[in-house]
Amino acid sequence: MSRSCYDPRSTVEDQGRDMDIDLSTDFGARVARHLEDDRIVWLTTVGPDGTPQPSPVWFVWDGEAALIYSQPSAPKLRNIAQQPRVSLNFNCTPSGGDVVILTGDCWIDAEAPPVSEMPAYVEKYTQGFRDIGMTPDAFAQTYSVALRIRPTSLRGP
Q1: N or C: more exposed end of the chain, with fewer CB within 10 A?
Q2: Tens digit of pLDDT for each residue in 122-152?
Q3: Could you tell me the CA-to-CA distances from 151 to 40, 123, 131 in Å, in that order?
Q4: 120 near 110, Cβ under 8 Å?
Q5: Is residue 18 a contact partner of residue 6, using CB atoms and an 8 Å limit?
């Protein structure tokens, strides 16, 4: 069984370049585990001067794309507007193993519901909300911009 990711916003040149996660392999199983279980992923955008700008973010995976919420004034939004290609990197082991890097296209999803109306997000980050002294509603007001990232490539050992 594999999961296929296709970005309908891709150019004609990119169409047909689906990213498959082969769940029958050890690597594919590890990728799926990271996408389902990890609480933090590093979103890397490119700043105006070309410098990579990694940011740790909360996310949920819907089987095809990652959903991230951002503060409206965050520099990552300006970076994405200029260069929508981003990467998502999961933390590796202390010895450098279990590397998983997804590269894809990011866009603002104006149709996504607020965090407080996303049961999977609220369930995953209930303790996180408490840790930062926020409720899901307060978080939704502060982190009001939804970003979707549809991976187009995957790499790791």
Answers
A1: N
A2: 999 999 999 999 999 999 999 999 999 999 9
A3: 17, 24, 30
A4: no
A5: yes
Task: Identify the band that residue 22 occupies on the pLDDT scale cut at 50, 70 and 90.
Answer: confident
Q: How far apart are CA 145 and CA 151, in angstroms?
A: 19
Which SS3 state, helix, strand or coil, does residue 90 take? coil
CA dihedral (102, 107, 113, 119) in degrees, to 10, reads 0
Query: What is the model's pLDDT at position 39?
Result: 96
Q: What is the mean pLDDT of the chain?
A: 88
Chain position carrying tokens 């607020």: 114
**Residues of 8-43 as b/e, b for ≥16 C-beta within 10 angstroms?**
eebeeeeeeebbebeeeeebbebbbebbeebeebeb
Bridge partners (DSSP) of residue 152 are: none
d(CA 54, CA 47) in angstroms, rounded, equals 10
Of 134, 140, 133, 132, whose CA–CA distance to 115 is shortest?
A: 140
Residue ranges and CATH numbers for the domains of the chain are 2-108+141-155 (2.30.110.10)
